[in-house]
């Protein structure tokens, strides 16, 4: 009675040496998939860090340019774009990055910069995820100058101009 084997146990019982190979191969496949998923996650994290840092730097550079008295929005956008391009170089190695959008709102005293990066997946494609988009936005505000500060700035500039 005890020697009766069920159909589920019989294949493993015939070749005990081969059952260990099946388990070993299945574990190797699972470990390779887990390592690939970790690689994809690391690439997305690098893209997120790079794009967020670049957007933040561009926003702060734009607000700083407004604070320093840069008169035209085109000049401010150019300065913010140059800071964005300088800070996003490492993230470009991980994926593609769309050009940033730069919005200057002088009434609300804010500079908003937004960008989106895209990372192509490697092993995650097996699970139906071909790419992941990483959006980032940053808004920097500046304090409006009081009328006295504006007058002082004009007076100081006038005095400097008279000296030369």
Brief summary of the model shown:
With 164 residues, the chain is of the alpha+beta class. It is built from five helices and four strands, in the order H-H-H-H-E-E-E-E-H.
Give an overview of the whole structure.
With 164 residues, this protein is α+β, with helices and mostly antiparallel strands. 57% of the residues lie in helices and 18% in strands. Strands 1, 2, 3 and 4 form a 4-stranded antiparallel beta sheet that branches. The C terminus is likely disordered.
List the helices and strands and how they pair.
Layout: H1 10-14, H2 16-67, H3 73-87, H4 89-92, E1 96-97, E2 101-105, E3 110-120, E4 131-141, H5 147-163
Antiparallel strand pairs: 1-3, 2-3, 3-4
Strand content: 15-25%
CA radius of gyration is 30 Å
The separation of the N and C termini measures 113 Å
Helical percentage: 55-70%
Mean pLDDT metric:
82
The secondary-structure class comes to: alpha+beta
Task: Count all strands and give the number.
Answer: 4
Largest sheet: 4 strands, antiparallel
Q: Poorly predicted ranges (pLDDT <50, ≥5 residues)?
A: 154-164
Number of helical segments with 4 or more residues: 5
H/E topology pattern = HHHHEEEEH
């Amino acid at each position: 009675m005890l020697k009766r084997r069920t159909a589920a146990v019989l294949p493993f019982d015939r070749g005990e040496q081969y059952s260990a190979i099946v388990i070993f191969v299945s574990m190797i496949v699972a470990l390779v998939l887990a390592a690939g998923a970790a690689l994809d996650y690391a690439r997305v994290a690098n893209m997120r860090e790079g794009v967020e840092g670049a957007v933040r730097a561009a926003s702060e550079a734009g607000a700083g340019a407004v604070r320093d008295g840069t008169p035209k929005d085109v000049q401010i956008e150019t300065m913010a774009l140059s800071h964005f391009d300088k800070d996003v170089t490492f993230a470009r190695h991980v994926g593609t990055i769309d050009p940033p959008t730069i919005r200057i709102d002088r009434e609300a005293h804010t500079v908003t910069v937004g960008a989106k990066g895209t990372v192509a997946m490697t092993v995650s494609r097996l699970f139906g995820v071909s790419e992941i988009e990483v959006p980032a936005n940053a808004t920097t505000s500046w304090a409006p100058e009081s009328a006295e500060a504006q007058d002082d700035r004009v007076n100081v500039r006038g005095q400097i101009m008279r000296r030369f």
